[in-house]
Amino acid sequence: MTDSTFTVTDVSSGTQRDEASVAFDGDTVTVEGTIWGANGCKTGELLSADYDAEAGELTVVVGTKDREDAGGGCTQAIVEVRYRATATFEGGLPDAVVVTHDHGDGGKEVTTVTQ
Length: 115
Known about the structure:
Elements: E1 3-13, E2 19-25, E3 28-37, E4 42-52, E5 57-66, E6 79-88, E7 96-102, E8 108-114
Parallel strand pairs: 5-7
Antiparallel strand pairs: 1-6, 2-3, 3-6, 4-5, 7-8
């Protein structure tokens, strides 16, 4: 793995949704997903993107954190945080991608995709 990126694409009111999809394209793996936050001050963050070359497996762990610009007033409603994570590879893509969401409880596997 030569590079990884993470972008929050949207934060809006919602429910406790944890979902992710994985796409393999050229030298890039793209994960698009939704993780939920406990209140309106939450946003997403990439906790880790680890590639195990021997196993041929990329593990992407996404969590939530307080927004830096949140201030003191936060809605108490659940938010859905949509995100896009990418990992770029040299010499071939991984055989499998595991996506985990961690709400501070050690994490939960959301999806595993093999190509």
